Amino acid sequence: MQALAAVVSGEGDGAVATFGGLVRDHNLGRRVLFLEYEAYEPLAVKALERIVAEAGEAWPGTRVAVHHRIGRLEIGEVSVAIAAASPHRANAFAACRYTIERVKQIAPIWKREHFAGGEVWLEGATADPDNAAARETAYKTACA
Amino acid sequence: MRVTVRLFARLRDLAGAGELVRDVEGPATVQTIWRSLVAEYPALSEYEKSMSVAVNTDYSRMTAAVSDGDEVAFLPPVSGE
After folding, report:
1. pLDDT at B81 over 70
2. Minimal CA–CA distance to B74: which of B32, B24, B25?
3. Taking CB atoms and an 8 Å limit, are B59 and A128 in contact across chains?
4. CATH code reported for the domain at A2-143
């Protein structure tokens, strides 16, 4: 996370916001043992690049870096890390939040939860980068 | 013509393979490929309304044309919360 923060921030920045998504030990009443992440890698890289560009458009002067791990991750490990730097804190926070919301919407990355007694693929949103309503939702969440 | 089909997450589990090579009659669209896949693996059909598709590692649509050598991917809903 510190490395990501260093990548995005420069001398003109007054703020860098970071976000780390963690593997937690419970979900929907189940005791989680570990998670397994899978990605369609070339498309995932393009989706993350697109999200970073969107954040840069929405908050000019803000730079964002994002890193997502795949494979087996244990409880407490960081699955996704984001850093957003900006001259002022409001934009850094907003761009950071926007990025994670969009990652959840359009990055072709899936997680399989291995819990006490079984395993299940967790499925959320139908990925559609051109869905303007979803993008607007992420933007509103970021600015709330 | 010959296309490579990529399946991910639960779609991969349902088909029992993440990568399939299939010969299809041209002209074909992503929809053509999907229909022949569902004929082969009927369990996949539950994803018809919720999945996304990609052609040659870019998001695409069911109506997009597919050419010889293309990689067509079917993607279940992504991680969400």
Report:
1. no
2. B32
3. yes
4. 3.90.1170.40
